[in-house]
Amino acid sequence: MIHSYKELIVWQRAMELVISIYELTESFPREELYGLTSQMRKAVVSIPSNIAEGRHRGTKKDFLQFLRIAYASGAELETQIEITKRLMKIKPLNYSRVDNLLEEVMKMLNVMIKKLNPKANKLASYSMDILGKLFGSESKVKIMRLFLFNPETPFTAEAVADRIKSSLLSVRQGLSTLRQMKFIKPKTFSIRRAIQKKGKRQSKIVRRKVSGFILNASFPYLRELQRLLLNTSLLKGEEITRRLASAGRLKLVIIAGLFIQDLDSRLDILVVGDHLRRGAVEHKIKAMESEIGKELRYAAFETSEFNYRLGLYDKLVRDVLDYPHAVVFDRLGLPPVHVGRRPAL
Questions:
Q1: Domains in the chain, ordered, with CATH?
Q2: Which among 28-42, 81-95, 191-205 has the top mean pLDDT?
Q3: pLDDT value for 234
Q4: Residue 319: which of 259, 252, 281, 264 has the closest Cα?
Q5: Distance (Å, rounded) from C-alpha 54 to C-alpha 337?
């Protein structure tokens, strides 16, 4: 059991960050003493100070509020550090220690805020819990969404299990029930498979007929189910950002397409950050796809590559920014909202 705020690792790391910022700002020009130097020191001191005050307030509600203030001070400090990197190019400075500590503190604060705010933790899964109770299981809800989002695509039981990340047994049970309801109907179709013969390196592509299921367009309650399941299937922008946070240091998250009901958009999610782990981003996207029931179109760029593309008026980037979209996380400071851009969801 923790008896003092001094035992909190996040407070300890925040104190290390204070020392690092003071050491860094000692090398700033004297004319910045009452400018960036003062502002950065004030912002960094605010982080452990609010953690300590919130911990001693005695209630979870107060602690949560002060952790949010500390997190906001961290965001303020991060912006000020970025400003110094852009302005003070004459004298090279080592920001690695400061950057790493700030990132660690911000991640820990974010986790603590989530844990102390149970309503936020339950919000993402609330719709799925309700629907699961209505329709018997979450697996069945995911199966129904998959067919509703892909009304003209047939699926085998194995393909459904792979798409929704569920066991083949539960998928077969769900498909059997949905077939009895006449929500789906049997469909025989051809698929391509690669077959490699013994002794040969190259595989041969063959077409093979398989049995599966397709959405029954004549199902009497189809429209009602579409309104119910599709409108409650989409993750909110804040939840998308939270899930992607562990894939790297996020700088920008934009949602479009499916998430704002604009199917003409080229992308559903645009992610920009530093040190993005492509495998982690793909894993997070696949997990979202399994919940939503539809393949997501996304692009992930390092900050330097995104800025380069933005400067070249890259078609993909402009197709997202110049048409309807919602900015849900922005540490790059994109231009103000213009025609086509929507506020964060």
A1: 5-116 (1.20.1440.60), 123-228 (1.10.10.10), 234-342 (no CATH)
A2: 28-42
A3: 66
A4: 264
A5: 35
